[in-house]
Amino acid sequence: MTAETSQTLDRGLRVLKLLADTDHGLTVTELSAKLGVNRTVVYRLLATLEQHALVRRDLGGRARVGLGVLRLGRQVHPLVREAALPALRSLAEEIGATAHLTLVDGTEALAVAVVEPTWTDYHVAYRAGFRHPLDRGAAGRAILAARRAPAAEPACTLTQGELETGACGAAAPLVGVTGVEGSVGVVMLADSVPERVGPRVVEAAREVAEALR
């Protein structure tokens, strides 16, 4: 802590991070132990966060992340999209395929930014707001692969015809971006993904990750 920072705000943010890292919630006693402060301080922090719907407490008294966090999260998408657009434009123009940034939204993959190439005669029409299950399509599968091996070097995931007949996809996960789980990829009308596409998609995912750090 420095003279310019707020100890109370710091503790409140730490509470949110602790709750976000657990599926079953935490009691006041558990939070008190993890934060190294007394229970009275924790009660005050939780009461304040509850007022803003950032925390909720169940009938058993366990605190969990509240729905207010989701409302804040929705406002992040435009910022993420803006940061990713330069890398997506470069990827789409170089590969000649529709490039996209996809983020996790619950159990689904949500396309939040899409860039189509300007010079091709035809390409896949892929729109921001498009959703699909995480276990279908290159974008979702790349995210799941990163979950299974978080310490591994990012690799390109390839799929054929899983979301649209005649279309294939390539995607690589975003790595090292706190609070953002997603992937960068391309979708094209082809029998298979050309060999040069995989490394370029991985590079684009790294560029987006750097822009978001």
UniProtKB/TrEMBL annotation:
Entries under SUPFAM superfamilies matching the protein: GAF domain-like, Winged helix' DNA-binding domain
Domain HTH iclR-type, chain residue ranges per copy: 6-67
Gene Ontology annotations of biological process type: negative regulation of DNA-templated transcription
Source organism, top-level taxon: Bacteria
Record carries keyword Transcription regulation: yes
Keywords for this protein: DNA-binding, Transcription, Transcription regulation
Domain IclR-ED: 68-213
Single GO term (MF): DNA-binding transcription factor activity
The keyword Cell inner membrane appears for this protein: no
PANTHER family membership: HELIX-TURN-HELIX TRANSCRIPTIONAL REGULATOR, ICLR FAMILY (PTHR30136), HTH-TYPE TRANSCRIPTIONAL REPRESSOR ALLR (PTHR30136:SF24)
Protein name: IclR family transcriptional regulator
Species the sequence originates in: Streptomyces malaysiense
